[in-house]
Amino acid sequence: MLKEKIDRFYRKQEKNRRRDYFYASEVTDCKRKIYLKMKGADKEDLDPQTRRKFERGDMIHQRLVSALYSAGVVTASEVRMPDQSMFHGRADAIVSINNENYIVEIKSASPYSFKNLSEPKESWKKQLQIYLNHFGIDKGIILVECKGTQKLKEFSIEKDEGVLEELQEEFEKLLDMIKKDVIPKKPDKGDWKFDKCRYCLYKEACEESSNNLTGFTGE
């Protein structure tokens, strides 16, 4: 009875909109998926349980930023990159410790993932590199909370300009493909730990584009 009402509340339809920029959080996503998103392709609706998981992650983020404010180290939070950048996004926080600035990226992980987390995910590191290079800050911290135990892990990351140069080149090529309606090939799943395609919200649009020799334009 109540479950149905709550699920109905979380079953929101998201309008997919076209854009000509990338989000820092999607730099390790499947290029084909990014293409479909940016072309405004239809996608499956996110199920209520997954929405609640995302909401929980947002609450962890808010709580930890609030704790850092109370500790007196935050100089800015939710710092947005300017719209003219190729990458858009918001740095979770900038903190000052011993007169040195750090960009803080806050993440959460399941108990299993947290236990086996000896280094940050590649997507987290690349996202942080975009912020470090953009804001001209040399060091960052990835702060991870376990969703089950609230234990914390932190990883220090130093700015690497080479990473940003590689990402710029990689995504300039993708942007050119998007402008020319050239859809990227399906990804090589050889080194995947699990089949990401199975859970992708663009499965249908992806298959549709495979059957369309002229590619998917979203028209």
Number of strands: 7
H/E element order: HEHHEEEEHHEEHH
Question: Taking all residues together, what is the mean pLDDT?
Answer: 87
- Provide the CATH architecture of the domain at 46-181: Alpha-Beta Complex
Task: State the share of residues found in helices, binned by percent.
Answer: 25-40%
From the helix content, strand content and strand pairing, which structural class follows?
alpha/beta
User: What is the CATH topology of the domain at 46-181?
Assistant: Lambda Exonuclease, Chain A
Instruction: Estimate what percentage of residues fall within beta strands.
Output: 15-25%
Radius of gyration (Å): 19 Å
Walk me through the structure.
With 219 residues, the chain is an alpha/beta fold. The protein has a domain at 46-181: Lambda Exonuclease, Chain A. It has seven helices and seven strands; from the N terminus they run H-E-H-H-E-E-E-E-H-H-E-E-H-H. Strands 2-4-5-6-7 form a five-stranded mixed sheet, with helices on both faces. A two-stranded parallel ribbon has the order 1-3. A hairpin with a 5-residue loop joins strand 6 and strand 7 (152-158). It starts with a helix and ends in a 9-residue tail after the last helix. The model is unreliable at 213-219 (pLDDT under 50).
What features would you highlight for this structure?
219 residues, alpha/beta, Lambda Exonuclease, Chain A, 5-stranded mixed sheet, two-stranded parallel sheet, 7 helices, 7 strands, 39% helix, disordered C terminus
